[in-house]
Specification:
Radius of gyration: 19 Å
Strand content: 15-25%
CATH class of the largest domain: Alpha Beta
CATH superfamily of the largest domain: GAF domain
Largest sheet: 6 strands, antiparallel
Helix content: 40-55%
Number of strands: 8
Shape: globular
Number of helices: 9
Distance between the termini: 41 Å
Length: about 260
């Protein structure tokens, strides 16, 4: 059905198209931009975005006035038969990691070729790294994204890599398919992924993937903080710690 065809639920159709369109624009869009791109009346877009914001599916950044998706929308789909969601199953492990390190701990998932923040516990240190829930970053340049992709079956992994638009964000970014594939082999062998300031200068991350009953990755828990507090020398210790805690989260999720 095209936008010009009649439908019994035009508001629902418009709302879903707005959600889908925002899902492809990680930096968000204003009402004016949505009106221009989708061709809907401004009054209709205003009403729909306000309702979706009230319901918790969208958030509006005060300064830019841009709407972005929240984690509520990302968490709508849950595996059939699972009694608890990924966030609920992971919180215990996240709190333990947060308590032991004091650094920001995040739960992320893979959406297309991007890593998306589903939940986070902010660092207790004065200087801290954090991101908005629902925020995205290229999966190839962050530890949780790499951890999830490394755990995918080979055919799915190849499909994801073929759709990535590699770009060098910092001097240490893995900006070619060959370099990225080599890193994935290391991650599979050691059981955890690291980010050596590959997405943001001065920020290091360590992550491990959470798998479902079939062994497929559904998310990843990561620790993120400044290089001064998470030096490369600590990667093995943190990797082992996160791997152990992720195993607990996976067990909770699978039960």
């Amino acid at each position: 059905m095209t936008r010009t065809e009649k439908t019994a639920v035009p508001t629902l159709q418009r709302g879903l198209e707005i959600l889908e369109y925002l899902g492809n624009h990680s930096t968000g869009l204003t009402i004016a931009e949505l009106v221009e791109q989708l061709g809907y009346p401004s009054a209709s877009v205003f009403r729909i975005t306000q309702e979706l914001t009230t319901m918790g599916y969208l958030v509006r950044e005060p300064a830019s006035r841009r709407f972005t998706l929240t984690n509520k929308f990302l968490l709508l789909g849950r595996p059939g038969g699972e009694e608890r969601g990924l966030v609920e199953a992971s919180l215990g492990a996240m709190r333990r990691l947060h308590k032991e390190t004091g650094e920001t701990v995040q739960l992320c998932c893979l959406l297309e070729t991007q890593s998306v923040i589903l939940e986070q516990l902010i660092s207790t240190h004065p200087f801290k790294y954090s991101g908005q829930l629902g925020a995205r970053c290229p999966a190839f340049s962050c530890a949780p994204g790499k951890a999830i992709i490394a755990a995918l079956p080979e055919d799915e992994q190849s499909d994801v890599i073929s759709r990535i638009r590699f770009k060098k964000y910092t001097p240490t970014t893995l900006s070619t398919p060959a370099a990225f594939k080599k890193e994935l082999l290391v991650i599979r062998e050691q059981g955890f992924a690291v980010d050596r300031s590959e997405g943001l200068l001065g920020i290091h991350c360590v992550a491990a993937a959470i798998c479902d009953r079939s062994g497929l990755p559904v998310g990843a828990i990561t620790i993120a903080g400044p290089e001064s507090r998470i030096p490369e020398s600590e990667f093995p210790h943190l990797g082992q710690l996160i791997s152990e805690l992720v195993a607990r989260a996976a067990a909770n999720y699978q039960n």
